[in-house]
Specification:
It contains 3 helices and 7 strands, in the order H-E-H-H-E-E-E-E-E-E. It is an alpha+beta fold and 160 residues long. This is Glucose-6-phosphate 1-dehydrogenase 2, chloroplastic.
Length: 160
């Protein structure tokens, strides 16, 4: 409704007016004993592939024929099929380490006893994704997600 029914946003919702779109998800806590589960998936599969791609698809889709679930799904699938495969050059990965915050010592990812020793599983990821269609060609969609960051929030930033 914010986009499709808004006479101000809808004409601007394209590559001519939008420089980039950022979808950001951060948590201010680590794995906290759930590292065994998290280590199997990492931030890319746990958050970016599942949650943030859903948000990107809703943001970038064309108006559906109706508000029925199947019509919305079809438009989201069109977006996902139009996406360029992500390359390692378009990706930054990281893993949080122990730190002191507010006078309190916080453990690093590898300090979690449920995480395998020497794990390289990323707990932070940022990647640039591109949709190859007439509306979004050339506009980077920057997806960022991480654990044990300074704040807990989720947001979409649109830079016109």
């Amino acid at each position: 409704v914010l986009r499709f029914s808004n006479l101000v946003f809808e004409p601007l919702w394209c590559r001519q007016y939008i420089r980039n779109v950022q979808v950001i998800f951060s948590e201010n806590f680590g794995t906290e004993g759930r590292g065994g589960y998290f280590d199997q998936y990492g931030i890319m599969r746990d958050v970016i592939q599942n949650h943030l791609l859903q948000i990107l698809a809703l943001f970038a889709m064309e108006p559906p024929v109706s508000l029925e679930a199947e019509d919305i799904r079809n438009e989201k699938v069109k977006v996902l099929r139009s996406m360029r495969p992500v390359t390692i050059e378009d990706t930054v990965l990281g893993q949080y380490r122990s730190r002191v915050h507010g006078g309190k010592s916080l453990p690093g990812y590898l300090d979690d006893k449920t995480v395998p020793k020497g794990s390289l599983t990323p707990t932070f990821a940022a990647c640039a994704m591109f949709i190859n269609n007439a509306r979004w060609d050339g506009v980077p969609f920057l997806l960022k997600a991480g654990k044990a960051l300074h704040a807990r929030h989720a947001e979409i930033r649109v830079q016109f």
